[in-house]
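Chapter summary example.
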Amino acid sequence: MAPRFELRTRTTAIPWVLGAALLLSSCASQKPVAPTLSPAEARARIDRSLPERLADRAGWVNDLYAAFTALALPPSRENVCAVVAVTAQESGFRVDPVVPDLAAIAWREIDRRAAHAGIPAGLVHEVLKLNSPTGQSYGERIDHARTEKELSDIFEDFTGSLPLGRTLFASWNPIRTRGPMQVNVAFAEQFAARHPYPYPIQVSIDEELFSRRGSLYFGTAHLLAYTAPYDRFLYRFADFNAGRYASRNAAFQHALSAAAGMPVTADGALLPHEGQAQAGATELAVRSLAARLGLDDEAIHTALEQGRSPDFEHTAVYRGVFRLAEQAAGHPPARAAIPQITLEGPKIERHLTTEWYARRVDGRFNACLAR
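The structure predicted for these 371 residues follows.
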């Protein structure tokens, strides 16, 4: 931008010079605003970002566009490609994908849960020989299950039909992530409690996750509908796998290790799992800095309880630890880091990590942007 003006006298030129300087400064400081897309343009962008060969392409476009609209998220190239990348990684754009060796996986998980609950596996297997509403026994249906939806339906029938079902097997359904984006059931239920679900609920939020529209809606919310101090989508992909703010928390743990001079595992979990009464390694490391932070144990614990919230960044613990880490390192620490987590679950049979997952999705994301 180069404004033209005519220099007439020394006195009259001063306002022009000041005005030009202010105009140039304004142009330099303002970030370009992305143009608002019309519905047709947004749908076209989504369509271009999808895989070339895709059954019911129009349906995928409509459900993705509806998710962005309902969540009031801009369908930018980056946002659209982020959702596309996660969906491709999780399911290859299959609404109810076939899971290899699903029956064997299910039986192993049943035996594991029985052992954890102190119930003899033989007793569980005998109960599952009872006939289900389809005429087959529950065990026979498990043996023939090929998709997560089929297996989930078996468990729902079982817990709902038998007198002991709810008592012995409440929450035993092993399918806790569902649909083409493999959204966690607990997240969807919590999000739906705070935000109105935009579609009619046929059975339950749990069941909606098996639908394309439900999985895309809650998956897009999990991935994008929160603010975080990230300069790359890579960290959102890690959060999708490890939980919201896990990458921010892992960076905090790195800073904490530098400030306290002791190793702290950067797994993104600031407090131990529920039910564990003793303070975890992260909390103990922060307590070692209590005097320098000017905080007591109660204040430290209260701050760490905000670990799954944006509010944690505004606590004295977060700010103080990063201040001490910068003093120790001589430079500002990173505000995001991939959590160091080994993935576990009934369907995981090889060594996988959150870093592997995040970088795999990031590769798909960059390929989508290049299309």
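To summarize the output: The mean pLDDT is 86.
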